[in-house]
Amino acid sequence: MQIHTPPSGDKGAERYSRQTQLANFGEAAQQKLRQARVLVVGAGGLGVPVLQYLTGMGVGTLGLIDSDAISLTNLHRQILYTEAEVGQSKVVVAAEKLKALNSEISFEIYEEALTPQNALIIIQQFDVVVDATDNFAVRYLLNDACVLLNKPCVYGAVQQYEGHVSVFNYQGGPTYRCLYPIPPSAGEIPDCNTAGVLGVAPGIVGCQQALQVVKVLTGVGKTLSGHLQIFDFLTDDQYKIKLKAKPESRQITSLQSSYASPVCNTVALLTAEELYDWYEAKQPFQVIDVREANAFAEEHLQHAVSYPYSTFKAEDIAIVDNAPVVMFCEKGARSNKAAQLLQKLYPSTAIYSLVGGMDNWQYEFDEEYIVQG
Q1: Distance CA 60, CA 31 (A)
Q2: What is each CA distance from 287 to 79, 125, 176, 325, 328, in whole angstroms?
Q3: Domain membership of residue 299 as a residue range
Q4: Which has the closest alpha carbon to 341: 373, 314, 368?
Q5: Which residues does UniProt call coiled coil (predicted)?
Q6: Which of 41, 176, 265, 268 is least crowded, fewest Cβ atoms below 10 Å from its Cβ?
């Protein structure tokens, strides 16, 4: 949905004057930014600095897509958010704050995960895509969608004390699959939830991504297409490696039906139809609602207990008679993460995340097995 439409007026000349007076930039480059549409996938550690700088520099329309909510563990690196906003939607909070930074920008927010079902529909509306995710499945989905639609993708990644930046699928250059043809297998890299990240690191990488976006949009300067920029945050070393375009990486005719990550998506998924059958059969299972307390108070699935994601601790949950556990949130993203934490504590218990969350349940079954108030 669109949260803001730019007003008429001429604040731009003064607002961007320090930028337009640059040699080789000028009003011509500023106008290109003003007319551009950029999609930022992920409103977390990388996405926050990208969004802040692109907003400040005057990119006309910014799309934000992320199904996640703000958690306390985000705040050491996602400095757009505050303690008071824990539990709220990242994209909604981000768009409101960015609007206050620059009222001339239009924001289009997608409070959902990027999936094979919506990726092409959303991405085709934008000129440049920014990969600001921390999820291998989404990275491969983004790559394939950008190849199919011929959209440049500005890539960034941070792991512990190292950062990567590149521009993929730009003017015939390499794609993400030229660098990593297939997803890593489990155990090849540290687990997504335990590897850790230095707070300032995604800020540095995100700023570099914003710079690459501006170069792609304006043609000013040379992009990192064909190269991978690597940052070592312990030694302050930076170096580039040359990437070779591989024709076979472009042999993509359609999106895969699923991009499940073998590294991060280690939790079993349960569909709404399967859970409905469980209710109908009256078989024993536990239901855990990780939405915030106010949402639970309004309505929740039958037999559900509330453990809000913003304060979630796996050790607080008692498994009853080793019964299967179904966890759900609004759309399925937070319940997936919470289920991963619980699965580590109870490796022998069947723990599921409800696909599509409460939204999909109500779409499929309306108010069946829902308790009001």
Answers
A1: 9
A2: 33, 38, 39, 6, 8
A3: 268-372
A4: 314
A5: none
A6: 268
Q: Which backbone phi and psi does 2 adopt, to 5 degrees?
A: -95, 130
3: in domain = no
> Is residue 212 domain-shared with residue 152, that is, in the same domain?
yes
Residue 259 lies in a domain: no
Beta strand 162-168 pairing with 153-159: antiparallel
> For residues 219 and 25, what is the distance between their CA atoms, to the nearest angstrom?
9
- How many domains does the chain fold into? 2
**Which residues have a catalytic role annotated?**
192, 329
Please check whether residues 72 and 176 belong to one and the same domain: yes
How many other C-beta atoms can be found within 10 angstroms of the C-beta atom of residue 241? 11
CA distance 304 to 204: 42
**Terminal alpha carbon distance of the chain:** 28
Q: pLDDT, tens digit, for every residue of 83-101?
A: 999 888 999 999 999 999 9
pLDDT in tens, 256-299: 987 765 544 456 788 888 899 899 988 899 999 999 999 999 99
